[in-house]
Amino acid sequence: NSYAAFAPQGSTVIDAMRALASTSDFTFAGKDYPSLGFFVDSINGKTAESGYSWILYVNGKLSGTGASQTTLEAGDAIEWRYEKNY
After folding, report:
1. What pTM value is reported for the model?
2. pLDDT recorded at residue 20
3. Where are the beta strands (DSSP E) in the chain?
């Protein structure tokens, strides 16, 4: 699925996801780890399992940081891909 969302300048991916979830049918779940940040393990009911994970891409490139550390710029495209673990 594809969604359009607005997040204020300087927001993180997780901020944008929370905003989207509050205004649409988009859902996600995960856990916040104090030293690592928020780990997404389910998007729209599809849970990461059997050697697969939700992997974050920003503007078509693998993100070097997680959802709670990745700061967005105007026009950034967030993509989550369900991929086999490395």
Report:
1. 0.89
2. 94
3. 28-33, 37-43, 46-47, 52-58, 61-62, 78-84
